[in-house]
């Protein structure tokens, strides 16, 4: 959390009125004196104008804060609709999505060979269609989300219920995620091996999730091998003209709703990422007026002022870390802001996939 204002709206208006009253009283006097001297009151007026400008800025922030709190007053993390009666484990179900809660297949069987990188003939718009059609093993495949689009390579997680298109993965810290806008737009990393790290690219992610109802699952693992996860329904980003603004709806899962900043309204005011534009070190689109969240946090991500979740942050090799900024691979509602995670995966499939196929229970 980078910036807070404790000023109450009522107190603020009193301050504004006080300043205006001072101006009304001072300025006629200043005008008279001005006749006798060159500009004796000019400096005071300038100071008062500066104070008014600062108060106007505070008014803007307080007004936005009030609107935000009103908008999100019902936006609390949603508990699973049907609580599990089974003992909770690290791979327990994530609420009403009936997922196995495991990481993708590459974590479970790390050394298994991958299938070839996919046929040049592309039939499927995403991994869920490929799963429905062929039930292939996990691996890299070519997909084409939209008919006019060139196919591109993605990692398909065909376990954990199957049909997941993976668009972000951290595993070993060998890929630098502190990159410019164009890299995050086009994608970067490696797309060959079972444990390769990558960002699929905002253009590809936009084409994958801009239509229809989907479910994003975020898999997390700490340095002790403990795992957790979060689900978001109807996860989507706008196009580049709107700086890939993030929007999502219902949360469920075990790791906490860090994308929204947690349960506290103050935290949500500074860290809620819903509605935030994407920022990189060379494009500051955050709401942190005093600086660049992307530069401080060494990542391209959706930032507010700045975040409680940043899966593209700096890769620390021991989990807990210290420093000037909470710039690790962070999911704050699970391990806190000063713990950098070891494995992360962000993956998506259609919501309707669960309804038709019923494979969300991970029985394959
Ligand atoms: Ca900024």
Automatic annotation (TrEMBL):
Its main location: secreted. Signal peptide: none annotated. It is found in: Secreted. The chain crosses the membrane at residues 12-37. GO terms for cellular component: fibrinogen complex. Gene3D superfamilies: Gamma Fibrinogen, chain A, domain 1, Gamma-fibrinogen Carboxyl Terminal Fragment, domain 2. Residues 78-108 are annotated as: Disordered. The keyword Transmembrane applies. Residues 118-352 form the Fibrinogen C-terminal domain. Keywords: Disulfide bond, Glycoprotein, Membrane, Secreted, Transmembrane, Transmembrane helix. It comes from the Eukaryota. Residues 90-103 have a biased composition (Polar residues). One of its GO terms (biological process) is liver development. InterPro entries: FIB_ANG-like, Fibrinogen-like_C, Fibrinogen_a/b/g_C_1, Fibrinogen_a/b/g_C_dom, Fibrinogen_CS. SUPFAM superfamilies: Fibrinogen C-terminal domain-like. One of its GO terms (molecular function) is extracellular matrix structural constituent. PANTHER family: FIBRINOGEN ALPHA CHAIN (PTHR47221), FIBRINOGEN C-TERMINAL DOMAIN-CONTAINING PROTEIN (PTHR47221:SF5). This is Fibrinogen like 1B. The gene is fgl1b.
